[in-house]
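Good day; I would like, with your permission, to put a structural problem before you. I would ask you to consider whether the tokens describe a fold that such a sequence might reasonably adopt. The full record is reproduced below for your convenience:
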Amino acid sequence: MYVAVKGGERAIDNAHAFLAEARRGDPSVPELTVPQIREQMALAVARVMAEGSLYDADLAALAIKQARGDLIEAIFLIRAYRTTLPRFGSSHPVDTGAMAAIRRVSATFKDVPGGQVLGPTFDYTHRLLDFALTAEGAAPQAPKSDALGPMPRVSEHLDREGVIEPEPAHDPAIDAHPPDLTREPMELPAARALRLQALARGDEGFLLGLAYSSQRGYGRTHPFVGELRIGEVWVEVEIPELGLSVAIGAVTLTECETVNQFTGSKTQPAQFTRGYGLVMGQSERKAIAMSLVDRALRWAELGEEDTGAPVQDQEFVLMHADNILATGFLEHIKLPHYVDFQSELELVRRLRVAAMDAEEAAE
């Protein structure tokens, strides 16, 4: 039992008041609004939605404001709120092939059906501070362009030649009752469907580090980006009373398919292998990293050697990817541990006394 601290409740109330004051900042500066965060910090909002497993830009923006810009704290707030929501049903799998894309690029072919569409990207910007942004003025105007309609996937071209592994066959049992990481504890070893769920809501920085390690040789995964696309897809649900499906809205997704090192044998011609990433919102760095880690975790099913790299260790990756679990375990050590520490301190003191007595006896 922790030692009680006199006045602890009042101290906590004061800490909350200080937090509110620090969150607001200088009162002479206009307060940041939730719509401003939603519209002008869209990539931060997208990360909070993706790793919080709740697609609601307004709530994600509110969480960012409440958390003073700490995205992991905002993700924690969103996940906590998510647990209070009822679940009415499940949607059909979204059709990313029919995505209304605003960005679609491929690193494997110069010319692809539908063309390379750069869209909004930092890829070609100079990493120089733009001090013009400190001045308020008219909103910049981009050239008018429509979202792209359905486009064939780059992997379909490779499929026709047979030079890439086929898409894994669907398991009817899993399709009928897909695993749900938000409702059931993860059990290892985990099937790919569950692994992809864990990676989709995993910490972007952790996955980025793992993906980078695999590119540097710890896991031997250095792929080509077969296709990266960002855009909106329709979400449909089945209405049992009507016997039909209806669209309830559209969500923005980022999808990445990577083309990885090939495999082959005496009986199987050489083929490229696949990695896959799908993330809510615009988050291409996360989607690419996810696809690299997905491919690295498939080493066993592809008959490859286990190099012992962290990115190939399913337990290491999946049990450490969740930033909320990691945060809870990390930050709990700043809470009172007086009794634990005092017991260890007393043990150290006794050991030191015993060692000194032994030295004196030896003399």
